[in-house]
Design goal:
CATH superfamily of the largest domain: Spore Coat Polysaccharide Biosynthesis Protein SpsA, Chain A
Distance between the termini: 34 Å
Organism: Streptomyces mutabilis
Protein name: Glycosyltransferase family 2 protein
Strand order of the largest sheet: 3-2-1-4-7-6-8-5
Number of domains: 2
Number of helices: 12
Keywords: Membrane, Transmembrane, Transmembrane helix
Mean pLDDT: 88
Shape: globular
Helix content: 40-55%
Structural class: alpha/beta
CATH architecture of the largest domain: Alpha-Beta Complex
Order of helices and strands: EHEHEHEEHEHEHHEHHHHH
Largest sheet: 8 strands, mixed
């Protein structure tokens, strides 16, 4: 029996969202042949809700695996599911499985995600993976500050989704990544596992993206393969999440060094640091100058101010007029930029001066 599309869903303490995530798979225009849920070190009712979904005869065939003592975080859960799948189909993925979709248990996929991803991956035999375009999903704010924080994340996700490289993306998204099974089997043959099992691996999706490129596969993203993911409701949770992502990226870049697959990420990070310096030093001085002297006598200041208003607004025009207005006001984005600068700088410093803390 050949499975055209198998979905792997690692889930740790996701009782709130796992049922919604699985339901989005059931509503696909091209439904998966099999769903494998790996309950990973959970202490809540995640397994109960997954089993409830699996027992419904109207849903796609679903297997729920419990991995209670997983020492290798999400990477370990994904490898556990892949090993189970390999045994179920006779030992190797290629020839028995066409595609493998990996999605987070706090993610909801667009109803045509699988259909569109299959079309993209079938367009080029060298494509090993198609990444989702991620958008924020929430309206659960309880204060003006929380509404600001969530709103800026929605804008951030939307801006990133609209500007991602289509032929050589930085990283496959953990929220939704559609792989050619042959490519994943190639990684297993090459290094014994798909996702690197090491406590230092904080970003298994980025490390796997680099491994795919290094083994000769292309990866891409598509703006129509949409995944809706939860956002961080508090500043503390947001900084913790982004520090882990950024720290993991810096760690991976330091381990590999300057290569044809890492140079773009390194340059982007360096330019980001220069950009923050410009905003906080030269940009602030120019704004102060504009406030002290009449703009009528400084046309360049008028042009600079117009650029700062118009360009950010145009970058988020697909998100609607409210997002454009927020970006045009400048101050909300400036406040959020301070937060972004903090987690980027702190991540780089921690990568060099502290060890990675174990997490599951």
């Amino acid at each position: 029996m050949v499975h055209e599309t198998v979905v792997l869903v690692p889930a740790r303490n996701e009782e709130v969202g796992v049922f919604t995530s699985l339901e989005s798979l059931s509503k696909q225009t091209r439904r998966p042949d099999l769903i494998v849920v790996v309950v990973n070190n959970s202490t809540d009712r995640t397994e109960d809700y997954a089993l409830q979904f699996a027992e419904d005869e109207s849903t796609p065939p679903t297997v729920v695996l419990n991995f209670p003592d997983n020492p290798h975080k999400k990477a370990g859960a994904l490898n556990y599911g892949l090993n189970w799948l390999r045994q179920a189909v006779g030992g190797r993925l290629n020839g028995r499985v066409g595609h493998i979709l990996v999605m987070d248990a706090d993610t909801e996929l667009h109803s045509r995600f699988i259909e569109r991803a299959r079309n993209v991956i079938s367009s080029d035999p060298e494509i090993g993976g198609v990444s989702a375009a991620c958008f924020g999903r929430t309206d659960l704010w309880r204060s003006p500050w929380q509404r600001f924080l969530l709103g800026m994340q929605i804008i951030e996700y939307g801006r990133a989704a609209n500007s991602r490289f289509r032929k050589d993306v930085h990283t496959m998204s953990g929220a939704g990544s559609f792989y050619r099974a042959e490519a994943l089997q190639g990684l297993i043959d090459w290094r014994g596992e798909v996702f690197w099992e090491d406590h230092r691996n904080l970003v298994e999706d980025y490390e796997t993206t680099l491994a795919l490129k290094e083994s000769g596969w292309k990866v891409t993203a598509n703006q129509l393969c949409i995944a809706y993911t939860d956002l961080m409701p508090t500043l503390r949770e947001l900084v913790q999440q982004r520090e882990r992502w950024s720290r993991g990226t810096v760690d991976a870049l330091r381990r590999r060094g300057w290569t044809k697959f890492t140079w773009h990420s390194i340059i982007t990070m360096i330019l980001g640091l220069f950009g923050f310096s410009y905003i906080f030093i030269w940009g602030a001085r120019q704004l102060l100058a504009a406030a002290q002297y009449s703009l009528n006598t400084h046309p360049l200041l008028w042009a600079l101010l117009a650029f700062w208003i118009i360009y950010p607004a145009l970058r988020v025009r697909t998100l609607g007029w409210k997002a454009m207005l927020v970006e045009a006001l400048l101050i909300p984005e400036l406040v959020y930029t301070v937060v972004r600068a903090y987690w980027l700088v702190s991540s780089i410093l921690k990568s060099y001066v502290t060890r990675v803390s174990a997490w599951k």
